[in-house]
Automatic annotation (TrEMBL), chain A:
Source organism (scientific name): Stappia indica
Major location category of this protein: membrane
GO biological process, one term: phosphate ion transmembrane transport
Membrane-spanning ranges: 43-64, 231-252, 272-292, 298-316, 348-369, 421-442
UniProt protein name: Phosphate transport system permease protein PstA
GO CC annotations, alphabetized: plasma membrane
Domain of life per record: Bacteria
UniProt-listed InterPro entries: DUF3333, MetI-like, MetI-like_sf, Phosphate_PstA
Entry keywords, A to Z: Cell membrane, Membrane, Transmembrane, Transmembrane helix, Transport
Entry's Gene Ontology molecular function annotations: phosphate transmembrane transporter activity
CDD domains reported for this sequence: TM_PBP2
Localization in the cell: Cell inner membrane; Cell membrane
Family, as annotated: Belongs to the binding-protein-dependent transport system permease family. CysTW subfamily.
From TrEMBL, chains B, E:
GO CC list: plasma membrane
Membrane-crossing residue ranges in chain numbering: none
Subcellular location: Cell inner membrane
Name of the protein this chain belongs to: Phosphate ABC transporter ATP-binding protein, PhoT family
Residues forming coiled coils: none
InterPro entries named among the record's database cross-references: AAA+_ATPase, ABC_transporter-like_ATP-bd, ABC_transporter-like_CS, P-loop_NTPase, PstB-like
Organism, as annotated: Stappia indica
Record-stated family: Belongs to the ABC transporter superfamily.
UniProtKB/TrEMBL annotation, chain D:
Protein name, per record: Phosphate transport system permease protein
Subcellular location, record wording: Cell inner membrane; Cell membrane
InterPro entries, A to Z: MetI-like, MetI-like_sf, Phosphate_PstC, PstC_N
Residue intervals of the ABC transmembrane type-1 domain: 256-477
Taxonomic lineage of the native organism: Bacteria, Pseudomonadati, Pseudomonadota, Alphaproteobacteria, Hyphomicrobiales
CDD domains for the chain: TM_PBP2
Record organism: Stappia indica
Coiled coil: none
Membrane topology: Multi-pass membrane protein
Length: 450, 265, 323, 489, 265
């Protein structure tokens, strides 16, 4: 009302306003002002959307520019001779992998010799160019293929995070001055090896499918297993919170008597939305792990906690959309003898569907990105489990979740984890969009005006 | 929402299809229906007439308990259909409404296709054996409501895209498609032209053979044409009720006379 | 209830990197599954540890400080009585600034004078007004005071308060001056470690990556880091000496560099023999190959325990805490 | 019979019941569905539900009770000596592990069923035998444990059999009972709807149970905290400075203040932007623009908060310092460092835009066209229509959306820690660093303090207090909505 | 949404207040108005009659461009008011609608108080100097619409809680409160009893002195009583237009005759 000042010639004594005749083609002052207000209003709308989109683009730019490199990784191909005696000796020691390291060192030195790259570095020093996971890679090959002991097998071993960083432009010779893990001399070698095709940077599927690695080998870490964890959690969340949320809203909005008690429940639900997510973690720890004895670090527990956390979001949006359905629709259904239940499920619910789906989209997005409650139920940390063997173990075996994995990576000391954290965010966003696409399409189909 | 004072002694009123006794309706503090008692006979058409805002719609909605849906609305007294108190807690309003159909004053088609609008009732009541039977019901209902010719080619377009009068006939068709025993019609012809009106009146006449019909109308002529009995409401009171002929030719109450001769206000 | 077959560990985020390196190697070198190492903080880890014994409780708690008396009591109340304490080494705490900035050689006194909320001026307490390091100590560069210190949730903060602030307070004579000025000893000690709140000192509740990001946004800042973190980021950070000692695993192990703290893990003895591989894991952790001065842990930045052999022995004989 | 199998059988019984019930009802009406009280499907569902509900309830009960009973039985076999050596719980878990190992071994064919039942530690190295089939045991198996494990297997076998009989019996009985009631006059719809109604009530009560659960999981530690720390100091203290050596000051006021301050700024950003976006999307934008822009904006809600936190720390903070800091664009010296209430508030506001915009858009879209027509027909401009007719009509939904955004703002941690800092402060200046209740709950809960100390326990009281405060705010919001709600039609 | 074919040459038609030429309206593929040309004179009452669904409302909505709000609706041809093409891109529909008021077929009160329902228009157009003047306008509008007595004690109750007829009168009051030059009324009396109808007809008669009025009605009697000119629509065509008397006594077209004598269908 602010933009319609009351300056127009007002009505006569009769109380009935009479207005001057004006041409439609020339816009009078008041209309001009009102139209200006209209235009401003519309511009505000556009600006609002642009603001949102601008920040979206800025954030996405930051995410992609930091994270895309995570999808490439540097590999060193080394033919290793798996001598029987060496293998047996290694298997007899406590830290078996350290013996395999020696084998790899020799193999790498030999490979350099074959390629005609002269170096004064000792074999053990050469290993600094390789991931510390290389030995485990060789050992697990040996365990899986005992028949090939004695042969020479060419391995594509991961280069160490610093070598990888060098090829990605993150690590420079200057930067290595104080570094105790790698010298500038290594980098010269890497250059030569790259020329010979021993070192190569290529797309790294393991980042998308692999599992977490310890702090000392960022090059090996992947988000795949935690993605499975998130997937199982989201399955729980979707199949519990959507039906429960919608059912609860229907009861509260359509069936519950309107009294103090239901007011209390209503306030209570909005209030649950304001409960910090970590408090849901406290609840989950107490209720699901300590009371119900569900396993630690299990996606089922995470899913249950996130379900409780998402419920208020879905309930609030569902109730709002149920409220927005005009009563005449309900009357029409009741009038032809539909039961209340039928009128709700046949007519009201489909009309409220867009809002319900919006709530679901937002709720699931929140659930997918949440870390804090997972902290308390043990899904954050180093949980490098393998792919679950069955659906049931997918729910019950220890696992992490994408945001927790990202959060962990972001904290780690080696800067190579930084790019992985951002790369993980890219995967998370793609996951989110895949998850939402169904809801978005459905929502469009249900939208209608009446 | 609805409170019923227990009937002290409900007299036997078997002849009447519907009998209301001392019905009071309140919207919050507004007393919209005051102490109305009336008997509505089976297989007759009863017209409710009266000035706008006198409570006709309100009373009509009591008969199939549509007032249950209005939070602030409170009904007292008792209404019996076939001798059974419809406000008895044991009564299932759903069954009641299947038995007592209603055409609302404001047309309220579902935001669905025309076909689904009509087919909805028969579907939930299981009135059609199969798809063909359902189509049959839809077509015949639309025909009876005089809408068939206009919409037969666009049955799958939304019912909300119809003109005002078409929507009204759609709602009539929707109500008769479930063949209720009693049909309550709140100004069913208000948006209809004379020809469509005639068609609906014909329908009413035809329905009368099997059903009990209550119709709210503002047109004296229409009341005279279609109804056998007429009830005149005024400011929430039932002023007079009787054979339509009597009411129009020989009203007992001064207010009735004033109203039908147009001398009110 | 299905029986659990992998070891469950929870606790300190400082110990987490070491625990994860060991867990990974344990999985690779033995037939036992890789243990699960949750993070969440020493306190939360010990709390979980002390909820009781049994399968649905954790087996090991990592901690960046020794377990407290009250915690042992709470543990005992829940039935967790035989607790093995294993010290894995030391965490060095270093002071570092942007790689392109000036060099710093600190003493605890400098930090006390720069960051204490109130300092003694002419025998009286007054709000700290120092704005540059040079004002604090002429030998230091002319650079704005801007310190990023661990927040009050971090155990590192306690070490910082004790070994830097308190030390500085004593060294500079401020403590004595306060006590002489008639102050209660306890209050004076509290004054010594109270940091200023005018923005010169910023609490960091997050982790070292956050501190690094803050240095990145504010090149004049000095941050407090763990040694391991610094060693992984030598391209961005320049470390300062403390009392003329440069921090390194050697100088800390020898006790020359003053600011460090021990790291531990605690094992429920009751779970040994029940949870497969538990004792093996504990022994594996403190083996020379891993926790020794040339092992991967030291490689990563852990200051290896000079008395590692004693620790190994204690683990082998399952020695528990006696209180 | 294994659990999944039982569930499958129940479902199959329910499906069969559906068909049979439906058929019987149809038959009683001579195949004419018009004679039925309810639609045939309702009769089917009625039987299916009668088969499923008691069976599943019994199954759940059985699952909860059987382990307790068996544990009781088996644990009586454990000697006091072994209990003293570790604990009953642990010995029992060892028993279970061995039992399970035996199961695995039988399944893998390494042992026959008889062998598994008659194995003796005296004659066999059980640990090794099981090790061969991939079952790792922590220690050698004592004969006591093996006995107990064998007994455990026996009882479990018995229990599983009983479970199958009882549960499936119930399913059959339930179905039969409902089936014989399926005749044309039976009010199947009412009966099914009654069940559905109970399901709805159960769903609604989950929300209530959650609240109770939260209260319960916070209350003990809260009480414990107040035993260690004076409540008055907590509620009215103006300083928040925990310290390890004791003597912490744990006043909640600065935290509450910053929580409200930051949330307010976040809402001041997200509500106008979100509302204008919603109005534009639903009232002005073409369907194509809407179909694209709405989901895009929703991506903002899906970006992990750590990204927002970094965005605040690395981009927005320094930018604000450039404007409001010393020597900044405005020439004012309000801002010392990049971390500030303003930084966190702004960034949080961006994150919350879709919370307001998407839901409001749906609600605005649901306002009937007749309302717009009524207003436009009077010569109102579109914006006047929106402001004076549509928004009031959509108010309850919009308030819901805003509440959701506010709730999220109050509960956010990462953005606060990175954007607003970690040190508590009581100040009016939005360009100063402060921290919120939620951030402190997280940090005290994940910190290094002794977990039995007030410094750690305070997290629970913070949670509880925040819970009560937001409850108050929500009651206020409900009151506002009730007061200004405009119901169309 | 509305596309206008550019008028090749718009003839001067100054005498007529509204003149439509070759107007075509489509709802998607449905051709709802076919080639309608008509002149509506100033300060007269023109009645649109015709069977339900023939396009009366559609054409009425063209005159103040309310069809703009229907996505699927497309208007061709041109409509001039005071000689100005209202579909000219320069024309501001807002100003047009302030000048050409409308009462919709289905009463659509705002979910606001009765007072605010009426006051809304005057407020946005700045027609009242102060609160008293606004109250004055509200009261007089309600009086003119014959609703004042029924609602004067409940002005702050929601308009949606009124009876059907009361809502209709509320919408009439709302439309006249902004005193437009042209008032389009789509069946304004459909839900009204004879007395209320008479009151509204009186109002129309009174308004005619200053305003141009177009009314859609299904009642021949009403058309005869209130209008000076009558237009008969049929299946989207304007069949006949002329002085009311002529149309009713001497229709030129067979269809018109059939319709007014009720011999259709
Ligand atoms: N929104 C719409 N979408 C599609 N078709 C429509 C729409 N509105 C009206 N129609 C169709 O256009 C034709 C003319 O409708 P209109 O509403 O103008 O009729 P009318 O003359 O006002 O009828 P009534 O007297 O019943 O109100 C009808 O066939 C109707 O079904
Ligand atoms: N939902 C409601 N809330 C409050 N008052 C109402 C409500 N519905 C109707 N009323 C009031 O109750 C009285 C009777 O209304 P009712 O709708 O029964 O009138 P009616 O006889 O149908 O009138 P009309 O012919 O105008 O439709 C009126 O005064 C009306 O304002
Ligand atoms: Mg009515
Ligand atoms: Mg019409
Ligand atoms: O996580 P911390 O306990 O080591 O700080």
């Amino acid at each position: 009302m602010t933009d319609t000042a009351m300056t127009y010639p007002a009505g006569k004594e009769s109380g009935q306003a009479v207005r001057r005749k004006t041409s439609l083609l020339e816009v009078d002052a008041l209309t001009r002002r009102r139209n200006a207000a209209e235009r401003r209003f519309k511009i505000y709308g556009i600006v609002a959307i642009l603001i949102g989109l601008f920040f979206l683009v800025a954030l996405l730019y930051a995410i992609f520019s930091n994270g895309l490199t995570a999808f490439n990784q540097t590999f060193v191909s080394v033919p290793v001779t798996l001598e029987k005696s060496a293998v047996e000796q290694a298997e007899a020691s406590i830290v078996k992998t350290s013996r395999y390291n020696a084998m790899i060192d020799e193999a790498l030195a030999a490979e350099l010799g074959r390629a005609g790259i002269a170096t004064e570095m000792k074999p053990a020093d050469l290993r600094k160019m390789l991931s510390s996971g290389a030995a485990a890679q060789v050992r697990s090959f040996v365990l899986a293929n005992p028949g090939r002991i004695g042969e020479t097998v060419t391995f594509d071993l991961l280069a160490s995070s610093r070598v990888d960083g060098y090829l990605k432009g993150r690590v420079t010779r200057d930067a290595l001055v104080n570094d105790k893990n790698l010298d500038a001399a290594h980098l010269d070698l890497v250059d030569l090896m790259q020329d010979k095709g021993i070192v190569e940077k290529r797309f790294n599927m393991d980042f998308i499918t692999g599992s977490d690695a310890s702090d000392s080998r960022p090059e090996q870490a992947g988000i795949g297993v935690s993605m499975i964890g998130s997937l199982y959690m989201m399955l729980v969340v979707l199949f519990l919170s959507l039906p429960i949320g919608v059912a609860a809203s229907i009861y509260l909005e359509e069936f519950a008597p309107k009294n103090r008690l239901t007011d209390l429940i209503e306030v209570n639900i909005s209030n649950l939305a304001a409960v910090p997510s970590i408090v849901f973690g406290i609840l989950g720890l107490a209720a699901f792990i300590q009371f119900a004895h569900l396993p630690q670090s299990a996606p089922i527990v995470g899913g249950l906690v996130l379900t409780l956390m998402t419920l208020p979001t879905i309930i609030i949006s569902t109730r709002a959309s149920l409220k927005a359905v005009p009563p005449s629709i309900r009357d029409a259904a009741l009038g032809v003898g539909a039961s209340k239940m039928q009128s709700v499920f046949h007519h009201v619910l489909p009309l409220a569907a867009p809002g319900i789906l919006t709530g679901t989209i937002i709720g699931l997005a929140q659930a997918l990105g949440e870390t804090a409650p997972l902290l308390l139920i043990g899904m954050v940390g180093f949980i490098a489990s393998n792919y679950p063997g069955s659906v049931a173990s997918g729910f019950l075996d220890p696992n992490s979740a994408m945001p927790a994995q990202i959060y962990e990576w972001a904290k780690r000391a080696d800067p190579a984890f930084y790019e992985r954290a951002w790369g993980g965010i890219i995967v998370l966003l793609l996951f989110l969009m895949t998850m939402n696409i169904v809801a978005i399409i459905l929502r469009r189909r249900f939208e209608r005006r009446w | 929402m609805n409170q019923m004072t227990k009937p002290e002694k409900v007299a036997a009123m078997n002849e009447a299809k519907i009998s209301a006794e001392k019905v009071q309706v309140f919207y919050g503090d507004t007393h919209a229906i005051k102490d109305v008692s009336i008997r509505i006979e089976e297989k007759t058409v009863t017209a409710f007439i009266g000035p706008s805002g006198c409570g006709k719609s309100t009373f009509l909605r009591c008969i199939n308990r549509m007032n249950d849906t209005i939070d602030v609305c409170r009904v007292e007294g008792n209404i019996l259909i076939d001798g059974e108190d419809i406000y008895d807690p044991k009564v299932d309003p759903v069954q009641l409404r299947a038995k007592v159909g209603m055409v609302f004053q404001k047309p309220n088609p579902f935001p669905k296709s025309i076909f689904d609008n009509i087919a909805y009732g028969p579907r939930i009541h299981g009135l059609a054996r199969n798809k063909a039977a359902l189509e049959e019901i839809v077509a015949s209902s639309l025909q009876k409501a005089g809408l068939w010719n206009e919409v037969k080619d666009r049955l799958d377009e939304p019912g909300t895209g119809l003109s005002g009068g078409q929507q009204q006939r759609l709602c009539i068709a929707r109500a008769i498609a479930v063949s209720p025993e009693v049909i309550l019609m709140d100004e069913p012809c208000s948006a209809l032209d004379p020809i469509a009106t005639a068609k609906v009146e014909e329908l009413i006449d035809e329905l009368r053979e099997n059903y009990t019909i209550v119709i709210v109308t503002h047109s004296m002529q229409q009341a005279a044409r279609v109804s056998q009995r007429t009830a005149f409401f005024h400011l929430g009171n039932l002023v007079e009720e009787g054979a339509t002929n009597d009411i129009f030719t020989n009203p007992r109450d001064k207010r009735t006379q004033d109203y039908i001769t147009g001398r009110f206000g | 209830a299905i029986a659990r077959d992998q070891i469950q560990i929870a606790g300190s985020s400082t110990v987490l990197p070491y625990a994860s390196i060991v867990a990974e190697a344990f999985g690779e070198n033995t037939d036992f599954p890789t243990p699960v190492v949750e993070s969440g903080g020493s306190s939360a880890g010990l709390k979980k540890f002390c909820t009781g014994v049994g399968e649905n409780t954790i087996d090991i708690a990592n901690a960046s400080r020794p377990i407290r008396e009250s915690e042992i009591k709470a543990c005992a109340e829940a039935g967790v009585t035989d607790i093995m304490e294993v010290r894995i080494g030391y965490d060095g705490i270093v002071f570092a600034s942007d790689i392109n900035g000036a060099d710093f050689a600190f003493t605890p006194t400098d930090w006390y004078k720069a960051l204490a909320a109130e300092v003694v001026v002419d025998g009286k307490l007054a709000a700290n007004s120092a704005t540059t390091w040079k004002q604090v100590n002429d030998a230091l560069p002319e650079q704005e005071i801007q310190a990023f210190v661990p927040g009050t949730k971090h155990g590192t903060r306690e070490v910082f308060e004790e070994k830097v602030m308190m030390q500085g307070c004593e060294d500079s004579g401020a403590l004595k001056a306060m006590v002489d000025g008639g102050m209660d000893k306890k209050d004076a000690a509290k004054k010594c470690i109270t940091l200023r709140t005018d923005g010169r000192s910023v609490d960091i509740d997050g982790d070292y990556t956050e501190t690094l990001a803050r240095l990145d946004a504010n090149k004049a800042g000095i941050g407090v880091f763990g040694l391991a973190f610094y060693e992984n980021n030598t391209d961005k950070l320049k470390v300062a000496t403390m009392s003329d000692v440069t921090p390194s695993t050697q100088s800390i192990a020898s006790g020359e560099y003053p600011v460090s703290r021990p790291l531990f893990f605690y094992v429920k003895k009751a779970h040994i023999g029940v949870i497969p591989g538990l004792k093996e894991f504990a022994q594996f952790f403190v083996s020379d190959e891993l926790a020794g001065p040339d092992g991967p842990l030291a490689q990563y930045g852990l200051v290896s325990d000079p008395e590692l052999a004693k620790v190994q022995e204690a683990v082998a004989s399952e020695t528990t805490l006696t209180h | 019979m294994s659990l999944p199998l039982i569930v499958l059988v129940i479902l199959a019984l329910a499906a069969a019941g559906f068909v049979l019930g439906r058929g019987r009802a149809m038959a009683s009406a001579g195949g004419d569905i018009r004679l039925l009280h309810s639609l045939p499907g309702y009769y089917g569902w009625n039987v299916a539900l009668a088969a499923m509900i008691p069976a599943f309830l019994a199954l759940v009960l059985w699952l909860a009770i059987q382990p307790v009973v068996i544990n009781g039985q088996v644990s009586s076999m454990i000697s006091q000596g072994s209990i003293d050596a570790s604990s009953l719980d642990l010995v029992m878990s060892d028993v279970r592990r061995v039992a399970e190992g035996l199961d695995t071994a039988v399944a893998a064919g390494a042992l026959t069923a008889e062998e598994a039942g008659s194995l003796r530690t005296e004659f066999t190295d059980v640990r090794e035998r099981l090790g061969q089939v991939g079952v790792a045991l922590g220690s050698d198996v004592t004969s006591e444990t093996l006995h107990a494990a064998q007994r455990y297997r026996e009882l479990s076998g018995l229990g599983d059999l009983g479970r199958a009989i009882v549960v499936l019996g119930l399913a059959v009985l339930g179905a039969a009972w409902a089936w014989q009631r399926s005749n044309k006059d039976f009010r199947a719809r009412n009966s099914v709807e009654r069940v559905v109604r109970w399901i709805l009530i159960a769903a609604a009560s989950i929300a209530v149970l959650t609240t109770v659960g939260i209260a319960l999981s916070l209350i003990f530690n809260t009480v414990e905290f107040f035993r260690l720390y004076p409540a008055a100091d907590f509620f009215f203290g103006l300083t928040w400075s925990p310290s390890f050596g004791g003597g912490s000051e744990l006043g909640i006021i600065p935290l509450i203040w910053a929580t409200l301050y930051i949330s307010l700024i976040a809402l001041a950003v997200s509500v106008p932007v979100g509302l204008f976006a919603a109005v534009y999307l639903s009232e002005y934008a073409t369907p194509a623009v809407r179909a694209v822009a709405k989901p895009l904006l929703e991506v903002l809600a899906g970006i992990p908060t750590i990204v927002y936190g970094l965005f605040a720390l690395l981009t927005v903070g320094p930018l604000l310092v450039d404007v409001f800091g010393n020597g900044g664009l405005l020439g004012v010296d309000w801002m010392a460092g990049g971390t500030a209430v303003m930084t966190a508030g702004l960034v949080m506001g961006i994150m919350l835009i879709p919370f307001v915009s998407s839901l409001s858009d749906d609600i605005i879209n649901a306002v009937p066209q007749a309302m717009r027509d009524g207003s436009l027909g009077l010569g109102a401009t579109h914006s006047e229509t929106v402001k004076q007719v549509i928004l009031p009509a959509a108010l309850p939904g919009i308030v819901g959306a805003i509440l959701l955004a506010a709730s999220r703002a109050i509960g956010e941690t990462m953005i606060v820690v990175l954007g607003a800092g970690a040190a508590a402060k009581l100040s009016l200046n939005p360009f100063e660093a402060m921290t919120t209740v939620t951030a402190k709950i997280v940090s005290q809960l994940t910190g290094d303090a002794d977990f039995a100390s007030p410094e750690a326990l305070v997290a629970f009281s913070l949670g509880m207090t925040l819970f009560v405060i937001t409850l108050g705010l929500n009651i206020f919001a409900l009151y506002i909505v009730r007061k200004y709600r405009e119901q169309y039609e």
